[in-house]
Amino acid sequence: MSRPVNRVPPSAEAAPSADAAQEARRWERETRAPYIVSHPERRAPFQTQALRWPIKPLYTPADLEAEGFDYQRDLGFPGEYPYTRGTQPNGHRSSLWTMSQVTGFGRGEDWARRARYMLGQGLQGLILEHDLPTTNGYDSDNPLVEGEVGRAGLAIDSLEDVERALDLPFEKLRYLMSVCNAPQPINLAMIIAALEKKGVDPRRFVLHIVNGILIEYTCVGRYIFPPAHGLRIATDCIEYIIREHPNWAPISIISAQLQPAKANPVQELAFSMAIALAYIDATLARGLTIDTVAPYFHFVVNVDMDFFEGICKLRAYRKLWARLMKERYGAQRPEALRIRMMTSPTTIALTLQQPLNNIGRLAIMATACALGGAGEAMTTPLHDEAHALPAEEAIRVGAALQHIVAHETGVADTIDPLAGSYYVETLTKQIESAAHAELDKILAMGGALRAIETGYFQRALGHEQYERNKDIEEGRRKWVGVNHLVLPGEQRQIEIFRADNRTEEEQVARVRALRARRDAAAVSAALEAVRAAARAGTNLVPPCLAAVKVYATHGELCDALREVFGVHTPDSQLTGV
Amino acid sequence: MDVAAELLAGSVAAGARAIRWLDDGDPRGRTVLERIFAATGRAHIVGITGPPGAGKSTLLDALIMEQRRRGRRVGVLAVDPTSPFTGGALLGDRLRMGRHALDAGVFIRSLATRGEAGGLSRATYDACAVLDAMGFEVVFVETIGVGQEEIDVVALAHSTVIVLVPGLGDEVQAIKAGLMEAGDVLVLNKSDREGAEQTHRHLEMLLHLRQDPSQWQVPLLTSIATRAEGAAALCDALEAHRAWLDQTGGFTRQSERRAEQQFQRLVRALALPRLLEGAEDLLTLVRTRALDPYSATERLLQRQLPRR
Amino acid sequence: MAAASARPLRVLLAKLGMDTHTVGITVVAHALRDAGMEVIFTGLKQTPEAVASAAIQEDVDVVGVSSLSAGHTRNLPKLARLLREQGAGEKLLVAGGVIPPEDLPLLQSAGFARIFTMGTDTREIVAYLRDWWAARAANDTPS
Questions:
Q1: Domain B41-248 in this protein, CATH class
Q2: Pick from C33, C54, C58: CB nearest B89
Q3: What local confidence, expressed as pLDDT, does residue A19 receive?
Q4: Taking CB atoms and an 8 Å limit, are A573 and B61 in contact across chains?
Q5: What sign has the CA pseudo-torsion C2, C4, C7, C12?
Q6: Residues A200, A160: contact at Cβ < 8 Å?
Q7: Which residue of A has its CA nearest to B62?
Q8: What is the tens place of the pLDDT at every residue in A508-554?
Q9: What is the value of pTM for the model shown?
Q10: CATH code that applies to domain A72-471
Q11: What is the Cα–Cα distance from A160 to A167, expressed in whole angstroms?
C-alpha cells in the first residue's frame, strides 16, 4: 500500500529569507570551504562567457529574495503580460516553431531556378540576399565594385534584374524576405513594380523587408547616408508598408548581428531595444499609433555557447519588450505587447578546427533556444557555414538537429521548464535590470541615433571585441579546437566562394545595355522627382516606384539620394580609444 | 633621396619622410629643417579645435573641399593622444577626409602626441614647417581642445577656429576653458540640431561681452558639416582674418611668436635630459634629504651652465 | 618625453573591398596600440590607390590590409605594385582575413611578407612586427 509522499511541513517555508540565506552561509562555511582547500577550483574566477559576470557556486531561494523576485510580477503565465514564460498560451505544445535554414546564395536566374526547385519541394519561404555592390548602393559596372558583383548575393541593378529573380510560381510562395538595408526604398520599389508587372496579388503572400539600417551603422557597416537620413529612409519604408500593404512586414531588428560584433546580452538587449524605439518613435511621428505599429516589429535573436546566458537573454527579451510597450507607450493590444522573435544558434561559436564538433555545439545551442523559448521560428546555421557555402549533408544535419530537439528531448513538451530555477531566475532578472539601466542611459543621451552618431555603440562593441579576444588568447576562455584539445598539425581548407567572372561581365553588359535603350528624359525627370522628395521630406517610396518603372538604375537612384543627403564617413570604426 | 631638396620641390614622399624624422627625433630631421627653415613662414596655419564629437574632422573635410575649389593647396595635421599606458595610439582622423586621398593638392598626416602634455606633439611645429616649405598655402592643425590643449594650438596657429555643438553645455565648457579668448573664429556645428538657437544666442552674448573694438572681431558662424554647409563662410572668415593679420602686422608677429615658442619648447625638451645626465649624485642627495631640491638645482646649473 | 631612440612603429591598417566586417581589424588595431605602436586606420571600402597614397603621406613602416571578400587576388597585388612604383617598396606588407592557402604563393610573390589568416593570435602578429622592425633598425642606413 503506498503512502502519501511526505510534504515539507509549511512552517519550514514560512520564513525562507532568514533561513535560506543563513543556511547557504552555513553550508559555504562548514561544507564547501573545507572541501575546496583540498580540491581547489578549476577556474578562477568562474564567469559567464559574454557578460563576464561571476558565477556563484550555488544559487538558492536567498538569491531570488535578494533580487526581489516575485512570481506574479516577474513571470506571470504564458500568453499573459509580461510574457516572460512565453508569448503563446500553450508554448510549443500546439505547434512547434517554424524550422528554417539559411538557404545559401544564388545569382540572378540561378537563384530563381533554385527558388523554383525549393518551392517545388514544399518550402514556402525564401530569402533574397543582395550582393555587396547592391547593399552599398552601386551599379555592377561601377569601378569601385570590381570583383564583388553577384558574390555575396544577387546583383540588382534595375527592375529587370528583380523581374528575372521573381520569375517564380507565386501560388506556392508564402513568404519572401529581402535583405537590403541602406537602399531599402529602391529595393522595395523594384519588388512592388515587379509584382505589379506579373499581376501578383500582394495580399496573397508576405513580403518581409529587413530594413535594418541602424544596426548597419552600429556594427555591420553597409550604410550609405548619414544616420539621421538613414532613419528617415527606413521610416518611409515602414510607413509605406503599414499604409499600403498592411499584411507585409516592414522591419526586422536583427539583434543577431550585434552578437557576432561581441555585444554581450545586456548590450544586445539594450542596443536592439533602443534601436527599435528609434524606429517606433519615428513611425509614431508619422501619425500612426503604437497599437498599429508595435505588432510590425520583429526580432532575430541568437544564442551563444553559454547555455544560461542564452536562455535568460531570451526570457528577458520578452519581458523587456512587453514592459516598454506598456509603460513607455501605453500599448493596449496583446499583439503590441507580445514580441515577435526568431531564434538561432550563433555561427561565431563554431570553429574552423575539428568541424564535426560544431554539430554538438549547434545541438546545445538549439536546445538553449528551445528552453529559452524558440519564438516563432528557429534557424540553424550549418556546421560548415562559417567558412564555406553549405554542403548537402550539412543541410540535412541542421534540419535533423531541430527535429531531435523538438521530438526526442522533451524540452518543448512543457512550457518554460527552467522557470523557478534559482540560477535562471536570478540571471534573467539581473540581465533584465542591467539592460533596462543601459537602455535608460542610451535614451538619456538622446536615443539610438545619438548613440550611433557619437560612436557610443561602436566604442562599446570595440571594447568588448578586444576584451573577448584577450579572454581567448590568454586562456581565460577555453575553446575546444582553438586553445584547448588542439589537434596539432590540423590543416583545414577554407573554402571561399569563388567569383565567376562571367557573371560579373554579363551583369555589367546588361546594365550598360539597359542604360542605352531606355528613355533618358523620363529617367532624368524621375531622378529629379526623387531628389525633390528627399529634400522636401516626403515619402521616398512613391517617387522611387515611378523611377524604377522607367528603369532608373539602383546606382543612379542611390546617387540621387547621395546628392541630397551626403554620405556617411564615421570618425572611426575603431573604438575604445 | 635628398629629402630636403625634394620636399622643397614638392615631393610627398620626401615631405612625409622629413616629418617622420622630425617626429622621431632622428638627427637627419634636424639637418633637413636647417635647410628648409628659410623657406617657411608663408603658409597660413589654422588651428581647428573643440571638444570631441563637435564634428571637427567632418568640418575639416568640407573646408578642404572649399579650399581646393579656391585653388589652394592644403596640408592637414591631425593630432591624437598617445596612450599614457602603452605608448601606442589609434589615429583615425583621416577617415573623415578619405575622399581627398588621391588629390595631389592635399597632404594629410596623422600625429600622436607621444607623451607631450597638451594636445600637440612637439613634432607639430616641425611638421608645419615641412608642409609650409613644400608650398602648401594653408595648413590645418586639428586637435582635441578642452582647455590646456587649445592654448597650445593658439600659440602655433595664425588663426584658431573653435568648433562647438549645441546642447552639450559646450558653451559653459568653453568659457571655463578660456576658449572664448583663444578663438579667432567660432563655429557652431550641427546647427540643425535641437537647442542650436539657444546656444547661438548664448555664444553671441558671450562674444559681445569680450569683443575689443580695436582688435579682430570674432565672427560666430554656423555650419552643418555633414552637408558642407558653412564651409564657404568659414573660408571667407579665415581669409578675412589673414588679411587683417597682414594689415596689422599680426601675421609676422604670430610667425615670430611661433618660432620663439618652438625654440623655447625645444630648449625645454632637449635641455632637460642633457642637464640631468650625470646628476645622479645630486638626485641621491635629494632623495635622502641631505640636500633640498632648490639647492640641488642651483648646484646642477652651476655645474652644467656656469655663468661666465 | 619620447627619447629620440624610441621610435614607435607606425602601421597603416585598411580594409579593401566592399566587405565591412570590422571585428578582426578592430582587435588587431587595439592589440598593436597596446603594444606601443601608432596605428593609422584609413577605413573601409578602400581602393588600392587610396591606401598607397595614405601609406606614403603617413610614412608608415607597415601596411596591413584586411580582405574578407574574394577580391584579394587582384586588390592586394595591385596595392603592392602601386607602393613599389611610388618608391615605397621597402614598407612591410602584410595581410589578413579569409585568404585560402592556395592563394598565398601569389600574394607572397606579389610582395606580401606574411599573411595572417583569420583567428591568428594577435600576440603572434605583434611579435612578428617587432622582430621585423628590430632587424630593420639594425640595418637602417640613412637614405
A1: alpha beta
A2: C33
A3: 85
A4: no
A5: positive
A6: no
A7: A566
A8: 999 999 999 999 999 999 999 999 999 999 999 999 999 999 999 99
A9: 0.84
A10: 3.20.20.240
A11: 11
